[in-house]
Write a structure and sequence with these properties.
The protein is of the alpha/beta class. It has 7 helices and 19 strands.
């Protein structure tokens, strides 16, 4: 009998995947494990994300979700989704996706991740709410490989019932001698071993007495991350040891422009359309029904990468593009503003 080495399996290149398991985490969040129908391995680093596509009432929507499973698990990936006010895709998944369901899953991507060489460092992982998902993937992976790794895991949530992965985090603290867990709860009534109230710079100062010798990974809402980043910068700590990712990036508004109107051409789809000076390229591509993936809509995920063949643009973000990409004319449609007539090629 031939035994297949999982590392020799073809790498997932995106397509339709099957939900093989659903686990409810809290009253408003659940984890979905996704796998291919054929032998495939998911190649990703802990902290990275995947783009999910679903059709809702005749319209296809895309969103980026952090992978919460360990990178050691290569035959499937797990995303953890929390219900959001007005969250079209998140709420649809929570209301409809069960084991056996199918959805579009893109390739794994992202610049927020932990590497093998980072494990030797003292790791500080900070998160708020559903921002826990990528740092949980990091913690799972690190402790599987090095059970004695030095991890300080600091998590903020509304209440005890709102802590995603609560039981697993408590088990990590119990089982691993150098895993320290600090939980901050807006409502800590009846929980004397929790920190009551918000995380503040003063509380960070008290917790992180060896701040200069640690490597930081941060994910949460923008005010939370701004507070921590300001605290970090005020201490003049090295920027190369500070890593962050917005779990829910904010959409970028159109840049200021004149009243000029240009022509946008996408020859491979036989499409031409009008585009205003300063208007985002993604908005027009979507309005014309051209199949571009706009997941994060703020230049974070790279899913809307396309090539500018001709024309002048303003690039608001090039975060996921390499120098070679930029030299070859690639842009991120969500973060590219028209400054002349354009010809674009989708990849």
């Amino acid at each position: 009998m031939n035994v297949i080495n999982p590392l020799q399996l073809p790498v997932w290149q995106g397509g339709e995947a099957r939900c093989i398991a659903r686990r409810d985490e809290t009253h408003d969040s659940a984890s979905f494990t996704l796998a291919s129908d054929t032998p495939t391995r998911f190649d990703f680093k802990p902290g990275q994300f995947v783009t999910i596509g679903v059709e809702i009432e005749g319209t296809r929507h895309y969103r980026a979700y952090s992978i919460s499973s360990s990178a050691s698990q290569i035959d499937a990936i797990t995303i953890t989704v929390r219900r959001l006010p007005g969250g079209v895709v998140s709420n649809y998944l929570l209301d409809n996706l069960q084991a056996g369901g199918r959805l579009e899953v893109g390739v794994t991507a992202g610049e927020f991740y932990l590497s093998e060489q980072d494990i030797a460092d003292k790791l500080v992982m900070l998160s708020a709410g559903s921002g826990v998902t990528p740092v949980m993937a990091m913690a799972r992976w690190v402790l599987e490989r090095h059970p004695d790794a030095d991890i300080h895991f600091i998590l903020s949530a509304r209440s005890e019932q709102d802590i995603i992965f609560r039981d697993e985090l408590l088990a990590m603290q119990e089982q691993h001698p150098h895993f320290r867990l600090d939980l901050f709860l807006d409502n800590a009534e009846g929980q004397p071993d929790r920190h009551a109230g918000f995380l503040t710079p003063e509380r960070l100062e008290a917790l992180l007495t060896d701040a200069a010798n640690s490597l930081y990974f941060l994910c949460g809402n923008q005010p939370y991350m701004d507070m921590i980043e300001n605290w970090y910068d005020a201490r003049s700590l090295p920027r190369e040891r500070f890593h962050k990712e917005s779990f829910k990036p904010e959409a970028q508004p159109d840049a200021e422009g004149s009243d000029k109107v240009f022509e946008l051409s996408v020859p491979s789809f036989g499409k031409t359309a009008s585009i205003r000076d300063g208007q985002a390229l993604l908005d027009v591509l979507e309005a014309e029904g051209i199949p571009v993936i706009g997941a994060c809509r703020s230049g974070v995920c790279g899913s809307c990468k396309c090539r500018l063949v001709e024309g002048e643009v303003e690039r608001v973000s090039t975060a996921t593009l390499t120098e070679d990409d930029i030299e070859a004319g690639f842009v991120l449609a969500c973060s590219t503003r028209a400054r002349s007539s354009l010809t674009v090629e989708l990849m």
